[in-house]
Amino acid sequence: MNKILLHIEGLAVFALSMYVYGQNEFSWVWFFLLLLVPDISMLGYVVNRRFGAMLYNLFHTYTLAILIVLCGLVLSSSHLLGISMIWTAHIGMDRMLGYGLKYPASFKDTHLNRV
């Protein structure tokens, strides 16, 4: 049951991010072009599993994305807000699909399950 709730939570974050993005009339072309950019952080695994997991997790936690949302709001920057909505949507999409934060043991070992 907990696993299902985490997938639903990811869906909710993904949907809310897309809604806020659309309400601000940002470009959907940019949304789809940038949606997978946080996955570039997987290149950290070229160095080693520990560094790869750390870098991947840094780009796949809500903390940085939410900080950028706050910066976008405080600075009235539509660019920052748009980027943060895409980033948040990416994380929500990953959670919805069952991809979680990585453990250094293996790329497939996540906080959600073994993918």
Automatic annotation (TrEMBL):
Specify the superkingdom: Bacteria
Q: Which InterPro entries match?
A: DUF4260
Question: Any idea which UniProt keywords this protein has?
Answer: Membrane, Transmembrane, Transmembrane helix
Residues that span the membrane, as ranges: 5-22, 28-47, 59-87
Protein's recorded name: DUF4260 domain-containing protein
Source species, please? Siminovitchia sediminis
What is the organism lineage in this UniProt record? Bacteria, Bacillati, Bacillota, Bacilli, Bacillales
